[in-house]
Amino acid sequence: MKAKYIVLGTLLSVALSSCEKDDKITLPAPENKAAVEGDIQLYNKANPSGSETEIYQNGVFNFVAKTSEKVTEGGTLALNELELSKVVANYNTFKGTKDYTLLPQANYTFEGNSYAAGATEAEAKITIKNYNALAQGDYMLPLKVKMGTKEGFHIIKVHRDADYVALSSTSKKPLPPDSYNCPNRTEPMKMVAYVETNDWDIRNMGQFVLENSKKPIFDIVIAFAPNMNYDVKQGKRVLHFNDKLQPIVKDPNKYIKPLKDRGIKVLMTILPNHQGVGYFNFQNYQEAVDFAKECKTYADKLGIDGFDIDEEYADYYKFPEKPTVGNKSILWFMRAMKEVMPDKLLTLYDYGHSLSSDDVDEWGKSAKDYLDYSWANYFENHGSYAGLPNEKYGMYSIEANWGLNSSDWSAYYNLEGCYGLMMVFNIKGGDIKSGRAATQLSKATERLYGENCVFQGKYHKGPKD
């Protein structure tokens, strides 16, 4: 068993240099902190099974160091503070990220208890202090303590966020301030932001808030995009995350949790990838269910709120063994996703498919029975091809790679048409940092919510920065 695991301390301080060559390195299982016999288990007393400790406020946290053998001499648990910065840098490399920094000494104290000869465990206390004085960011304190001749290791992460007021069923943005003749509008307009993860960091979308109420302007943030690939060896479709998505997969608490804490729904687009498989060549319902179960595995792991359908780039001609079977295939997929994940959102980018409101499956259901929301392609002014009601649809979507000058126009026509959503695709980092994005989005939020928009807090660098 012990050969299966790698000591986390060794992993971070030594072996991380090898992970770029082999991304299948196995992290220690939470239930086995002492990955190699004789090492110290070092764990949070309040959460013994946790491999890391996440902290979001001042507080006192008690840790237990436990050895597999009695120590021969007494002593005191001490924190080894040598090379902590190097450990943090190695951790960033392993996780494929840039922005964990060492927690400043002014923000913690360590107190180790003494232990006698023959002891097998001892406790230590970490106090996190001056939390509100921290700049917004992600911090790390690698705990490395020695008991006898053995060492134990545990990672503490401290996250400091910007100020905001979370969205919820009791904390909603306001309905549009002007009176529009929309009898079915009972909810505030929803704003949707796609983020091309090859370019930018998804967390930046959570920093756009209404100036006075501090509520996020975006209700839904979509990571664009994991791929629908085909694994020849397994003989099935798989969900593939490229190297730019790996940081999110490896550290969802860092990338996804800040958005969810704001009440924002986090989705991922599933995009075909030139491998001959897409939404129109599931050969039967069971094949769709199998892929839906694959998606659920990641939804559970990452804590996301659902998936978005985008039918592009399938290149069906490359896989003649799986011919397209028409609209019944995509309806199979929609049904499977709702059967496997009834509590998750399913949305449709209204482009590239041939669905209409008349298409039904074997159960007499159409796309509108499975989809939660949908939105049109950039600057298109039609209603839902799949037949969703206007309050669940958005038109005049914005391609923000071309700028945000149409924000006011898009907001106005969505309100006039009694539509319920407004989608923005891929706001550029340069526009965020210059302030142009907040200025242009304010023209929309003034119409939709009666408030300006501001970008509040830290700008998170993405792959293009």
What's a quick, concise take on this entry?
The chain has two domains: 40-160, ntegrin, alpha v. Chain A, domain 3 (Immunoglobulin-like); 190-455, Alpha-Beta Barrel (TIM Barrel). Helices cover 21% and strands 26% of the residues.
The best one-word shape is globular
Number of strands: 24
Mean pLDDT: 91
The helix count comes to 11
Description:
The chain has 465 residues and is of the alpha/beta class. The protein folds into two domains: 121 residues, ntegrin, alpha v. Chain A, domain 3 (Immunoglobulin-like, Sandwich); 266 residues, Glycosidases (TIM Barrel, Alpha-Beta Barrel), CATH 3.20.20.80. The chain contains eleven helices and 24 strands. Strands 12, 14, 15, 16, 17, 18, 19, 20, 21, 22 and 23 form an eleven-stranded mixed sheet that branches. Strand 22, helix 9 and strand 23 form a beta-alpha-beta unit. The chain is globular and about 80 Å long. The two termini are 43 Å apart. The N terminus is likely disordered.
